[in-house]
Structure formats: C-alpha cells, structure tokens
Amino acid sequence: MPKSKVRKKAAYTPPPVSRTPQKVAGPTHPAYIAVMLAFGILGLAWLVVNYLAGPQIPFMAALGNANFVIGFSLIVIGLLMTMRWR
C-alpha cells in the first residue's frame, strides 16, 4: 500500500500588532441606565395594569389586545438598551 505524503505545516506567525491607539469607551451615563430601567418597569407596569384594571380604564379598553404589544414593546426596548450598557 502506498504511503501518503506528510504535510508540513508552516510555523505559526502571529498577526502583526497594530500600533494605532484604540479608544476605550467609558462607563455609560447614569441617565441612560435610568431610562433603560424605566422602559422595563413601565412595560411591566403597563401589562399589570392591563390585567388588573384594563376594562375599567377607557383608553386601555379601547386599545384591546394592542395593550400587550405596547407592554412587551416597552420591555423589549429596555432589554435592547442593555446591549449598549457598559
């Protein structure tokens, strides 16, 4: 049976180091954190109020199932904001 050729790998060479300084982002402004938390809590409060007193509140009763979209959208906006939080 013929013997297979042995491949020789080249020695590892690390990529060249970039000497340009990288800007390091600082911590997030406290107002950003407050807005992020406010969106999450407001969305949760919207859903809780919808479940407990939705039919008694005229504008919430008129919205019907759109209340779920509003509440979950507010929560999702708050969660998406966490991705930029440092």
Features:
mainly alpha; single chain; 86 residues; 3 helices
Strand proportion, as a percent range, falls in under 5%
**Tally the helices: what do you get?**
3
Mean of residue pLDDT values:
89
Poorly predicted ranges: none
Quaternary structure type? single chain
Count every beta strand, where a strand is a DSSP E run of 2 or more residues: 0
What is the helix fraction of residues, given as a range?
40-55%
Termini Cα gap = 61 Å
Structural class of the helix and strand makeup? mainly alpha
Element pattern in H and E: HHH
The largest pleated sheet is described as: none
What would you call the shape? elongated
Radius of gyration: 27 Å
Topology:
Elements lengths: L29 H24 L4 H6 L2 H16 L5
Helix pairs in contact: 1-3
What does this structure look like?
The chain has helices spanning 30-53, 58-63, 66-81. The model has no long low-confidence stretch (mean pLDDT 89). Helices cover 53% and strands 0% of the residues. With 86 residues, the chain is mainly alpha-helical. Helix 1 packs antiparallel against helix 3.
Please provide a brief summary of the model:
The protein is mostly helical and 86 residues long.
